[in-house]
Amino acid sequence: MIQKNINKLPKSVVEVTVTAPWADISATWDQTLQRLSADVEIAGFRKGQVPINMVETQLGSKLQDEVLKTAMPNFLIEALKGTDVVPIDYPKYDLVNFVKGQGIQFKATITNRPAVSVGNYKTIKTVRPAIKPVTDEEVGKVLDDLYKRWKTRQPAVNNPQPAATQNTPAGSGSLNFQKSEIASSPAAPRNDGVAEAPDDTFAKAMGATSLVDLKDKIRKDLEANVKYNNELDYEEAILQEVEKITTVELPDILIADELNRMLVSLQRRVADMGLLLEDYLKGQNKTLEQIKQEWKPQAEKNVRMELGLADIARQENVTISDLELQAEVDKITDAKVKKQFESQEPRLHLRHALRQTRTLDLLKKMVGG
């Protein structure tokens, strides 16, 4: 029977010291030895036929390492049964003593799920930002920009044919212009039979029925984008209020994870600009550590916000059923991405994300949005 000593430290760090007698580990030792013996080769013996005592000598410290990989996690799980400790990271193991025939003692350091206290979230007051109307000037700017890029792709003939565009049927849905058209640089005016201003020919090349229809599609797309960003701003305002009323001692591991997530996001943005992160940092005259230090207050807010929302989900008994989870997985069209969700960990992350989203929707109803 194992002996344990649980020591709770600041920032949700927990040290667990476990002592187990040889009787509790001998079976693992024998099973591991038997498994490894199949691959041991010694001169004079067939592979897998080496006497077990010789196998044990040949393996040396490798045998002990393999036993510890299995034994320590199992003993830790047993030690935490019946306690309020719920690990949120991988344990760090430190072997104190291990002698065959005598037993084992080790120390495991883990981060416990922090205690979270959220104030009266049902009284949160947040005003939805006003939606700014799309102006004719904004529509015209997008139209002119598209036209300049489309014009550079036209052949220099008197009767040019429209450039290839998306397969969106005329008059249906929102616009989906080809990236190459957006990325091209404007060229100087040409006398090649192409109109000097957007016209119906250009509009039809863009998937519209006429120039008037194209302007209407552009306006609808801009309005949809404004509405989307407005909703994001509203949700952010609610989450900011949740963060203000959330009290929690933040574990270092969660802050580090959030900083890494923010860094990955930065790397993607920098890559979109065609730069390497190292070049970007040089341009900012900052080191990676300086960036992380600057970001730390925001990372702490983000973690506090996340934990507060999760605690509200717990209080409101917000759950995601297996059927709902599978329905989200089924929406994934990329076969490689979808295959990843055959593993348990990605499914856990997805379930958590769906639960957080549903909780935020619940809060929006409470606030009145």
From TrEMBL:
Predominant location category: cytoplasm
Q: Name one GO biological process term.
A: protein transport
Q: What is its EC number?
A: 5.2.1.8
Q: Which GO terms describe its cellular component?
A: cytoplasm
According to the entry, every stretch annotated as the Trigger factor C-terminal domain falls at 211-364
Alphabetically list the UniProt keywords: Chaperone, Isomerase, Rotamase
InterPro entries membership: Trig_fac, Trigger_fac_C, Trigger_fac_C_sf, Trigger_fac_ribosome-bd_bac, Trigger_fac_ribosome-bd_sf, Trigger_fact/SurA_dom_sf
Name the family.
Answer: Belongs to the FKBP-type PPIase family. Tig subfamily.
PANTHER family in alphabetical order: TRIGGER FACTOR CHAPERONE AND PEPTIDYL-PROLYL CIS/TRANS ISOMERASE, TRIGGER FACTOR-LIKE PROTEIN TIG, CHLOROPLASTIC
Put simply, this protein is called Trigger factor
